[in-house]
Amino acid sequence: MKNLIVGQSGGPTAVINSSLYGVIQEAFLHTDEIENVYGMINGIEGFLKGKYTDLRAEMPPETLQALRITPGAYLGSCRYKLPEDLNDTVYPELFNRFRELNIGYFFYIGGNDSMDTVSKLSRYATEHREEIRIIGIPKTIDNDLINTDHTPGFGSAAKYVAASVCEIGIDASVYDTKSVTIVEIMGRHAGWLTAAGVLARKFKGDNPVLIYLPETDFDQEQFIADVQKAFQSKNNLVVCVSEGIHDKTGKFICEYENEAGTDTFGHKMLTGCGKYLENLVKSRLNVKVRSVELNVNQRCSAFAQSLTDSREAAKAGSFGVTAALKGETGKMVSFIRDNSVSYDISCGLVDVDEVCNKEKCVPLSWITGNGTDISQEFIDYALPLIQGNPAIPMKSGLPNYAYRK
Amino acid sequence: MKNLIVGQSGGPTAVINSSLYGVIQEAFLHTDEIENVYGMINGIEGFLKGKYTDLRAEMPPETLQALRITPGAYLGSCRYKLPEDLNDTVYPELFNRFRELNIGYFFYIGGNDSMDTVSKLSRYATEHREEIRIIGIPKTIDNDLINTDHTPGFGSAAKYVAASVCEIGIDASVYDTKSVTIVEIMGRHAGWLTAAGVLARKFKGDNPVLIYLPETDFDQEQFIADVQKAFQSKNNLVVCVSEGIHDKTGKFICEYENEAGTDTFGHKMLTGCGKYLENLVKSRLNVKVRSVELNVNQRCSAFAQSLTDSREAAKAGSFGVTAALKGETGKMVSFIRDNSVSYDISCGLVDVDEVCNKEKCVPLSWITGNGTDISQEFIDYALPLIQGNPAIPMKSGLPNYAYRK
């Protein structure tokens, strides 16, 4: 009988631990095929240093259940890129460790870069006839993986963004004076998360009135004109911008601010495009301006976790385990949407070599209003993903998350 | 029979509308004593421009119920200070409007400045024998009003801060590399909300490892030494700072950054102390640093609304109405804590003249570790205030808040 090992990699999400839950609980069911269940600490990088844990020993049922609602990466994560050259010494080093632990099943929960790891390991395993099945479980708030309807982690982040933008709109509207509030949202190259700001609108004309994604070029003069036009019908404007908006030469808008000056310590100032646009509006229009960077909470908050997202993340994990047990390797679990009656997701498998290092952007046809708005198609696509609130067990008034000390 | 008018003033909170709910539903019960129930739009400032609404007409039961969980200020708010001179023409102007609407009961939900309005109006009314009873309902996330155990709005903001700091700690700890994350929290003069960061700790030694309030002086060299010491036992540090921290000369730490340079448009750069400390740590220690400004969401989010806070806010509103009906005027509703068996709050009345324009700070004896930590007394004080989660009605996956178009 072989053992299983699972790791997490890349940035945290609200539901990466839900996928971990899916892998573990499915593995625990197959006591006839899987002996030990190990977790890599800090992904492949920690594993190379000999860091792993026996999950059956450290995971009582209540901790396993708490994983379902715990944001972040319970096992710790890493940003470690395996060498392109499969003849590098790191590969035999890794597979020696796998052999020592009698690993037959390897699961890696992550985004683009993590799928690159899955691709390299599975190609190495094939070349060297290593008896280990290697499966990737997708996760990223960016929703930029190809060959899957969406990625686990996006739904909860989108819900956090939509709910936060809605509340920022409420906050911005309490005074009767003209104001612009710029909300900077994560997404360097793909605007999926920023587009989710549109879900905050409760009625036609409601905030956010302007939404800018990195899929199109951003023109500063046009932006000022857009804001002035929006003031014709509304006093308090909320504007969503992706951190990765750029001009037509490809220069990021945040780079304009960062060129401006140095901080107290003589270093280049590093701020985002939200701060830059705040200063731009302040210098050009005589109105109150504020910028809000949603920052890390958009990827690590379980306040606004989507039950749909959390369930799908767990499903992806358990589907990966059953696929590996059937002999699959070198695959990433994907989501296939069935909209024929109502929203339904089934899991599939795609070749991980095709997925890694590619990026799925928001279709240009879903970006409307000359790059200032988001179409109904996006709303129809995203709305099912933010549905439902998981019951969060509380302790002393705060969520009772699972953690390793 | 007289009419009632209610207004909201100052910055939004998660539960200011809960107090509005309390006032309205109590007023609706006394059909034998109160005829119409009006709402000022944008507080006293909007009312002076003739802006008010008939709440019985615009408030169906479902909207009234939705008020209980809706953050922000449903009626709109203002920052309007009445003249010190009670002989100013604005006073007869206001009282003429009250007389025109046959107002017998005036309620103002707000913080320090709003209590100043309540004080001035009630003194004017007494001097001029105006037959109108004037009551203040406290609210502020800052918790800085005197003569009350705490203020409605603080509990929910404290819960938001504690839950966010906890999640930021989870996010910061996923990688194995040394890092400092600085969380900047609202509170210019009083550190109550920043102190609530301590509630995020799940075990001894957990984040946040350092907490700095504006009640004590902040020394930059000592801060660097504190961080270095904390690294001896932990790799990923979360530090909470109040926006109002200052050095021993009284100079705000954020002013250091703002002196640094100008933005792209030649204006003084305006950032907070979190950004400054991020740059300070970066320049002195060779570690990853990030700063997170919790920003407006800490005062306007219902994600982490405290049921205790929401219920108490409503209770303060309804208590104010019954007090006015009994003949009280010139008072602010206060909270009196009974800890004899378990946490219990009853409402009282305090002289509004004594409350306004004063500030309650965190007791120095509750600040420990040479100004870097918070004592158990604070935890015992604050923990009951963040208990319970109200059921939030959802629509399309997002909270279904009450709103005026």
Structural overview:
2 copies of one chain form a homodimer. By secondary structure, chain A is α/β, with parallel strands linked by helices. Chain A has 2 domains: 2-153 and 303-357 and 388-399, Rossmann fold; 156-300, 3-Layer(aba) Sandwich (Rossmann fold). Chain A has 15 helices and 15 strands. In chain A, the strands form 4 sheets. Chain A has a 7-stranded mixed sheet with strand order 3-2-1-4-5-10-11, with helices on both faces. In chain A, strands 7-8-6-9 form a 4-stranded parallel sheet, with helices on both faces. In chain A, helix 1 (16-29) crosses helix 13 (307-325). Chain A is elongated. The mean pLDDT of chain A is 95. The interface between A and B is large, with 78 and 78 residues. Chains A, B: One of its GO terms (molecular function) is 6-phosphofructokinase activity. Chains A, B: Diphosphate binds at residue 11.
List the helices and strands and how they pair.
Two copies of one chain form a homodimer.
Chain A: E1 2-8, H1 16-29, E2 34-40, H2 43-48, E3 52-54, H3 55-58, H4 61-67, H5 90-100, E4 103-110, H6 112-127, E5 133-138, H7 154-172, E6 179-185, H8 192-195, E7 210-212, H9 220-230, E8 236-242, H10 253-258, H11 273-284, E9 288-293, H12 297-300, H13 307-325, E10 331-338, E11 344-351, H14 352-355, E12 367-368, E13 373-374, H15 376-382, E14 394-395, E15 398-399
Parallel strand pairs in A: 1-2, 1-4, 4-5, 5-10, 6-8, 6-9, 7-8
Antiparallel strand pairs in A: 2-3, 10-11, 12-13, 14-15
Helix pairs in contact in A: 1-13
